[in-house]
């Protein structure tokens, strides 16, 4: 029964796929672009019912084999899914269970261990496929022919312009990664910059860069949870890039409330983060969200941008501007995926050098190959999205002069955002 269903599904795919069943029989194309070798009968049912996340887990663990380019593999994945992964809705009871699990997942200790699980597998591994600044977030392709490195610099400067950074201002970067934005803001906008991270590797890496660049007087990087930042020395501007996905839905009110308290009245916050594609689902279905949670981002949770805007507003922040970068992230992720695919042997050697045995190194590499390409497709297909939300801590001041009666710490037009001010 399953074999016949698999044959039908393979005929409808946009790429040529062959499947080798556990008994040695083959289904699908005789000249395949993608070949999947199943090793037990249970996997046949997974494939027939479109449980691609479970198949992905089997591939990562070495319990199934997969051949083909990641672009062809992902074209097959889209065709195998029974429906769009954002159409599956969570019930009232499952939403309540998710909130309870979220509270358990996001203690300070668990957040630290989850971040270290993801980021502390070795800086050199990330350096293989990231741009030279190691900016591990969505780039901004302000022109069609931009390279990844150019698009990342365009993103860094876009954030600085949105925040209207000025010389001498105190600037905080929450979840500062490998320091790309932190150092760009200091070097191009003359701010006093502080970054925080939960990753030991990133903390050490950025502090080496600060010393090499002679920026010790203007830049600091701390190993710290955002919840431990003191409130008695607020910042003029704050960025949070690729971090709020790790906060947890149950902690989101405290997250925005704490960041508001860390801002001076009139200060600005730029929150750049991945959001759910649908309003009723907290992760991508089809087993894809479970795959990411198990192998890549334990503890990651998504919410729709409308919920994020609501919670931020309820915390006392004013939403000034919202921009979707979804197509930019699809292009960014494909650039990362293509870069990794071109250096698989080197990546495997690096993972071994980190102390992983052959089996573990192979498992990590297979997981990351599927993750990067899978995320690229997810953004292409609108299963997930990403937004930059620019928010202010209202100061209550009434403007005088040319615009009497206006109450705003933000320009009346967006013109300034799209005119580069970097030196």
UniProtKB/TrEMBL annotation:
<feature type="active site">
    <location>
        <position position="375"/>
    </location>
</feature>
<comment type="similarity">
    <text>Belongs to the CFA/CMAS family.</text>
</comment>
<keyword id="KW-0489">Methyltransferase</keyword>
<dbReference type="InterPro" id="IPR050723">
    <property type="entry name" value="CFA/CMAS"/>
</dbReference>
<dbReference type="InterPro" id="IPR003333">
    <property type="entry name" value="CMAS"/>
</dbReference>
<dbReference type="GO" id="GO:0008168">
    <property type="term" value="F:methyltransferase activity"/>
</dbReference>
<dbReference type="GO" id="GO:0008610">
    <property type="term" value="P:lipid biosynthetic process"/>
</dbReference>
<protein>
    <submittedName>
        <fullName>Cyclopropane-fatty-acyl-phospholipid synthase</fullName>
    </submittedName>
</protein>
<dbReference type="GO" id="GO:0032259">
    <property type="term" value="P:methylation"/>
</dbReference>
<dbReference type="Pfam" id="PF02353">
    <property type="entry name" value="CMAS"/>
</dbReference>
<keyword id="KW-0808">Transferase</keyword>
<dbReference type="InterPro" id="IPR029063">
    <property type="entry name" value="SAM-dependent_MTases_sf"/>
</dbReference>
<keyword id="KW-0443">Lipid metabolism</keyword>
<keyword id="KW-0949">S-adenosyl-L-methionine</keyword>
